[in-house]
Write a structure and sequence with these properties.
Layout lengths: L1 H16 L12 E4 L18 H8 L8 E4 L16 H13 L4 E6 L7 H17 L4 E5 L9 H17 L4 E6 L13 H7 L11 E4 L22 E5 L29 E7 L8 H11 L8 H14 L8 H14 L4 H7 L4 H4 L2
Parallel strand pairs: 1-2, 1-8, 2-3, 3-4, 4-5, 5-6, 6-7, 7-8
Helix pairs in contact: 4-5, 7-8, 8-9
Length: about 350
Amino acid sequence: MAHDIRKVFIFFLTFIISSMSIPSTTPINGLIEGFYWSVSNAVNGEYDLFTKKQRDQLISLMDTNINYYFHCPQDREDDPFTMKLWNTQTVIDWSDTISKASNISIVIGLRPRWIETVQTSLKSIKTKLTQLASIGIRYYILCWDDVSGAGTTAQMILQRDLIHALVYEVTNIELIGLIPAYYARSQISDDNSTTWANQLSILNQIPRHIRFFATGVAVVPSSIQIHEIPALTNRQFIFFDNWIAVDSNSKVTMTWPPNRHPDIYNASEFISGSVLNLAFPPERIIHQIYALKQRIMNTDSTMNSHLAAEYWAKYLVNNNFYDWNSLKQVQDTLKSLFDHGYETNSDIIRHYPILHKILTN
């Protein structure tokens, strides 16, 4: 009887959200502010998350191909700031960002961490969601990646029940995704898709419109293929690409993510798209956003050092890191950097002193 009631309840939830959900045929490709930025890796005194100016500059690069911006920085157990209400200035800042990003969907990531009771977590999340919805944010995701104990059966049951309650009780902002504790196949002892699916079977009882995020076979995979997802039915996955998220202020990833199947950027029965987890600060990763655009458009052949350097240099000049008279010099320098592949700040500055402006911490 209890099982039948749950099935009816899930059907009802699916019905009431069907009119507001992002269609399953719509790809979700974007950028995700989901890195660990510790104070020990501060850049010019900044850490934890991007400044408003940095975020706005990034969002200005986005378009119809990259049109979802996920803000879900890693918080800390002693400071779960993603769950706290924003102060007045932060509300003003985000309201302005949203007003400028008319063609970009802003998605906020919340990190509920350990659930003591569904009601306790539900109350705090609903309070936060009320604030987010009041300034025009339409979507959010829940994140349990790298949370100690979040992958236990008891916690995943609570996560499932919390999600059901949120979908039923909150209708002015939509839950579109979930980063589960088991987001990579390598986190499973057997390291196979069937066992991975079994670990996620409890969470797979939530409404089907909620996408699961997964990195693939590893947390930082050298290859992402469309078959590298858990063997779950009625569930779409968004690939969470960690290739450039080095979580360090002393290294820049110059190599392009290898072996990304072009279909991971298209919506299908089991795939919903891919998001690139960023590194910090933004001015050091613009070439990787260029590369993402090329992969989404299936034009890898144009991903060459000249065009990437031109794209990166124009961003730096447009945002006053260099003046326009330096454009050609900066572009030529970046092309040479691509060709030689230096990745540590010290090596890059030693060979290309002009880049100290963007690589000095």
